[in-house]
Amino acid sequence: MYTAADGALSAFGQDPLWIVIVKAVLIFLVLVLLTLFNIWFERRVVGRMQHRIGPNVNGPFGLLQSLSDGAKLMFKEDIIPKAADTVVFLLAPLIIVVPAFVTFAVIPFGPEVNLFGTQTPLQLTDMPVAVLFVMAIASIGIYGIVLAGWSSGSTYSLLGGLRSSAQMISYEISMGLALVAVFMYAGSMSTAEIVEAQDDLWFGLILAPSFVIYVISMVGETNRAPFDLPEAEGELVGGFHTEYSGMKFAMFFLAEYINMAMVSALATTLFLGGWKAPWGVEHLWEGANEGYWPVLWFFGKLLLFIFMFIWLRGTLPRLRYDQFMAFGWKVLIPGALGWVVLVALVRVMSLENTFDRGTLVLVAAGAVIVAAIVLFWPSRSGGAEEPTARPVVVTGDPAFPVPLMTAGAVRGAAAPLTFGAPGGTPTTVRGESGPGDDVRTSTSQEEN
């Protein structure tokens, strides 16, 4: 098991105050610029997928489009609904945005470098429970979403806030469980030490199920398509921020894109080696992990996750809310729990030399296959009886028959429709009806 023998945490807490302020300001500027770039990047990539041009007028290649959109929102009229709780209504966007910035305090962007003549790590701070700090601070944003929906005085905003809180709390559970295996293999919850523990092999490879569960959970946690149920325009207009306008409306999108970068940075740190160069590059180039070059590797991996977010949004339709919640509670959380138990068992056996490595790999692969079969086995048996249509007696005008009411999902073609003819003889429009169809026809008006 990896230990902090090399003193990864000892490099923190030694910086002068002005260096801490400089690093905090740099992180803030990087996140704001990254948000402007990600908005432009998303619009350009989705436009390319849909055979459109995308933003291309403001600035070279349209790079200033996000800046112009922010300026437009800055000068838009600021409206506060009459039924809103004004204080909470104004505080909610801040409660969402501030934690999004704070979480980057423990993300390592690179190794120790010379910054303005001072030797310091490219990380604001670190602590023995840094990953738990990120999860705790990120969960505060849920309060902002709930308060934004409640304080608006709108039913649709309230429903959007409640739906969002249920979704984010549910997927935080599976996300946290996916990280337990990383803690067991790294022997630490410090982000800097977890990066150092991936010198030989990335955890995204040896803990692939945890990586997959985390990636799915982080899409649901950030309310991004196809899991953007809190912003379902079809039934909720716009979700919890329906009543917001101007800069307060912009702050919700700022928080969304920063959270998207945060979960991507966390995935890069915990599963893809953090700021270290891709596997094999350090053997070809000795200075790949020295100086400021690791910043390039870190942001390259982060942008790969950003592209994945955009790709999902441009290709997959939105899920139903019941399907989405059932997937989280019935598939992801049980799967993550089972995987944690398996990793703990394998880890103990490996440390005690109970089995050789080849046997452990075979056992792990077999357990993953069995879990996949159990989770994705069809719930309906092949011989199950299909639900049939429940006929409804037409009591009104036979010229306008009432469609058949069903007791459940009906497979096959619809039953034939029968219309009352003026002469008293029913006219039937037949289709391919399934077995068990019972259709009560309407006769003429005289018979009714």
From TrEMBL:
It is an enzyme of class 7 (translocase). The keyword NAD applies. This is NADH-quinone oxidoreductase subunit H. The chain crosses the membrane at residues 17-41, 86-109, 129-150, 171-189, 201-220, 249-272, 292-312, 324-346, 358-377. Its EC number is 7.1.1.-. It is a multi-pass membrane protein. NDH-1 is composed of 14 different subunits. Subunits NuoA, H, J, K, L, M, N constitute the membrane sector of the complex. Residues 418-448 are annotated as: Disordered. InterPro entries: NADH_UbQ_OxRdtase_su1/FPO, NADH_UbQ_OxRdtase_su1_CS. It is found in: Cell membrane; Membrane. NDH-1 shuttles electrons from NADH, via FMN and iron-sulfur (Fe-S) centers, to quinones in the respiratory chain. The immediate electron acceptor for the enzyme in this species is believed to be ubiquinone. Couples the redox reaction to proton translocation (for every two electrons transferred, four hydrogen ions are translocated across the cytoplasmic membrane), and thus conserves the redox energy in a proton gradient. This subunit may bind ubiquinone. It catalyses: a quinone + NADH + 5 H(+)(in) = a quinol + NAD(+) + 4 H(+)(out). Belongs to the complex I subunit 1 family. Keywords: Cell membrane, Membrane, NAD, Oxidoreductase, Quinone, Translocase, Transmembrane, Transmembrane helix, Ubiquinone. GO terms for molecular function: oxidoreductase activity. It comes from Nocardioides malaquae.
